[in-house]
Specification:
The chain has 331 residues and is of the alpha/beta class. It has one domain: Ureohydrolase domain (Arginase, Chain A), CATH 3.40.800.10. It contains 10 helices and 8 strands. The protein has an 8-stranded parallel beta sheet, sandwiched between helices. Helix 1 crosses helix 10 and helix 8 packs parallel to helix 9. It starts with 15 loop residues before the first strand and ends in a 20-residue tail after the last helix.
């Protein structure tokens, strides 16, 4: 099972902290603010409790208001839609993430991927207090390493990794300043298949590790994932997993506003989660970009619930067999 940074063992599983982060200011598509409640409806808490964990659902986070008016240092140069709103979410969530990471295993239920600006920052602060590095496994179709000067859309869910890695153009999101930023070389991305032109050069400059779908097609998921796990273990580091719905192929998981064809299969995703479980290195999790408005009868919410269960140790032998639906056109 995943372990907390402090004292989780085989005999003392960590408390799982579920917290909803219904932010959708980072994207142009409306609906992902309903994601946390869709995961609750899918039974994420009951599923984890069925695996023997004690879960606390802290409800949905409410951002505290901020006032950046008249402070040029906090204004980004370039295009950043809803910057102040995202700053409000980020500052509130950074503090909450830090608090939850100190006492258990936080699961951040989104909401768009801008929530990682706060969830990762708070966990990184906790890791630093433990004298440990933080690694991030970024499961996504996109690298989200844009800045206000490189973005093509201005949508801030595409700037999340750049923010928590401390790129100066996004420093105004944090108050007080981001301490410590995540080392970009500690960010490992899998499933990537969409990168903006200017973003590509930033990724090279900062040595972010990228395993795109070409790599996964050629090598499978095991080799790049085990390289990450071995590195995390060798440094006694902590590992945060950030799972975007669009990591999966949209034919499997349709409930996302940023679909990119050619994503991971369901079996690949479960294998990643099972290997992460066996590693016992994961300490926190994001579940993001779930848009129930675009889903088919809760299909994608059910998939995220089941992938979370795999991360916490459910095997294929434990999964309930689903009854087939009615055959269309039959009598």
């Amino acid at each position: 099972m995943p372990a907390t940074a402090q004292d989780a063992t085989e005999d003392t599983p960590p408390v799982i902290h579920l917290i909803g982060v219904p932010v959708q200011d980072g994207t142009h598509e409306k609906g992902c603010l309903m994601g946390p409640d869709a995961l609750r409806t899918a039974g994420i808490r009951e599923t984890l409790e069925g695996l023997g964990f004690f879960c606390v659902d802290h409800g949905n986070l409410t951002p505290r208001p901020i006032d950046n008016q008249g402070d040029p240092a906090n204004e980004p140069v370039g295009k950043a839609n809803h910057f102040d709103r995202i700053a409000s979410w980020t500052r509130t969530l950074t503090d909450r993430s830090y608090q939850l990471a100190r006492t258990g295993f936080p699961v951040f239920m989104g909401g768009d991927h801008s929530l990682a600006m706060g969830s990762v920052a708070g966990v990184a602060r906790h890791a630093a207090e433990q004298g440990r590095e933080l690694f991030v496994l970024w499961l996504d179709a996109h690298t989200d390493f844009n800045t206000p000067s490189t973005t093509e859309s201005g949508n801030m869910h595409g700037m999340s990794v750049a923010a928590f890695c401390g790129l100066p153009e996004l420093a105004g999101l944090y108050e007080p300043q981001l301490v410590p930023p995540v080392n970009p070389a500690n960010v490992h991305m899998m499933g990537i298949r969409s990168i903006d032109n200017k973003e590509r050069e930033l990724l090279r400059q900062h040595h972010v590790k990228i395993n795109d779908m070409r790599v996964l097609d050629e090598l499978g998921v095991i080799r790049p994932l085990m390289e990450l796990i071995d590195e995390v273990k060798s440094k006694n580091a902590m590992l945060h997993v950030s799972l975007d719905v669009d990591f999966l192929d949209p034919d499997i998981a349709p409930a996302v506003g940023t679909t990119v064809p050619g994503g991971a299969t369901l079996r690949e995703a479960h294998l990643i989660m099972e290997l992460l479980h066996e590693s016992r290195m994961v300490t926190s999790l994001d579940l993001v970009e779930l848009n129930p408005f675009l889903d088919h009868r809760g299909k994608t919410a059910d998939i995220l619930r089941d992938l979370t269960a795999s991360l916490f140790g459910r095997t294929i032998f434990d999964r309930p067999t689903r009854r087939p639906g009615p055959r269309h056109g039959s009598i």
